[in-house]
Design goal:
Number of strands: 10
Bound molecules: zinc ion
CATH architecture: 3-Layer(aba) Sandwich
CATH class: Alpha Beta
Radius of gyration: 31 Å
Strand order of the largest sheet: 1-2-4-3-7-10-8-9
Distance between the termini: 95 Å
Helix content: 25-40%
Order of helices and strands: HEEEHEHEEHEEHEHEH
Shape: globular
Strand content: 15-25%
CATH superfamily: Zn peptidases
Length: 296
């Protein structure tokens, strides 16, 4: 009797079944094998937009760093008096680092711009280094008083704005150049143009070393909001609030110009020329954020 299935056909069928099982097992294993663990740690950092808002007399960049995207825009400016007040620039850098690593610090209705170094030629006079510097770059030798305060045209930039401007300004018991006209200096024009483009709700200038926070005015008295933010910053930081700077006459200051166009501005003076005083200023900044974002 002939077998129903030949031995050869049986072997062929068996081989096919075996191959089928093997393929099935291989594919099944591929499917159920756990995905390889990938250690993807995405650092949570704030988005920052870097803008070059102008060039100094010697061609150095005037940088602005913008964080957040709320409708209320707060501006912080360090170093308008250059290397003479280098600690105000380091404070601005410290603030930028803090914003970068603490994105939730900025309430949703707020945008913050930091212009860390408004007079980079003056910083270069003292630090001798391009771009961002650290405390370790600051020379320890004593320099003649006032070194690095002016821009490369020897102009005091905080006398070059349009508020009672005149060609000669005063700094303590000295006569200083205020430029050939209001806004004759590229560094002053860069701040003017940025302010006119972005209409900040208020502007905070960091200086040293009067250990105080000052209001601002030009011809029409102090804006009510200027008084509010001066008092808020002062209470939180411990810098003495002073409504009117009267140690000597100041004309052409940027804060006065801002007052003249209805933008509140305060001047925060650190207590020495060497200290950054981050904790005090962080408390002051927090108070400003509470003022402009009361729901937070
Ligand atoms: Zn100053």
């Amino acid at each position: 009797m002939k077998p129903l299935v030949s031995m050869r056909a049986l072997i062929a069928t068996g081989t096919l079944v075996a191959i089928g099982i093997l393929v099935f097992v291989l594919f099944s294993v591929r499917e159920v094998a756990p995905a390889k663990k990938t250690e993807l740690t995405i650092p949570i950092v704030a988005q920052v937009i870097h803008k070059v808002i102008g060039k100094s007399v010697e061609g150095r960049n005037l940088d602005a760093y913008v964080y957040g995207n709320g409708p209320t825009h707060l501006m912080f400016v360090g170093g308008i008096h250059g290397g003479y007040e280098w600690n105000s620039v380091l404070l601005a850098y410290k603030f930028m680092d803090y914003l970068k690593t603490n994105p939730s610090f900025i309430p949703s209705n707020i945008t913050i711009t930091v212009i860390p170094s408004a007079n980079p030629d003056g910083v270069y006079d003292v630090i001798g280094k391009e771009g961002r510097f650290a405390l370790s770059d600051v020379p320890t030798v004593a320099l003649p008083n006032g070194t690095g305060r002016f821009n490369a045209h020897n102009v005091d930039l905080n006398r070059n704005f349009e508020c009672k401007w005149k060609p000669k300004g005063t700094w303590k018991n000295k006569i200083v150049s205020a430029g050939t006209s209001a806004f004759s200096e590229p560094e002053a024009r860069a701040i003017r143009d940025f302010v006119q483009t972005y209409s900040p709700a208020s502007v905070i200038f960091w200086h040293s070393q009067a250990n105080a926070v000052y209001a601002s005015e030009c011809e029409n008295g102090i804006l009510p909001k200027t008084l509010d933010i001066m008092n808020a910053y002062s209470r939180a930081s411990g810098y003495t609030a002073i409504k009117k700077f009267d140690s000597y006459e100041v004309a052409g200051d940027v804060e006065g110009w801002l007052a003249s166009i209805n933008i509140p501005a305060i001047t925060v003076e650190l207590s020495t020329h060497e200290t950054v005083e981050w904790d005090r200023n962080l408390a002051g900044i927090n108070a400003l954020l509470k003022y402009y974002s009361p729901q937070n």
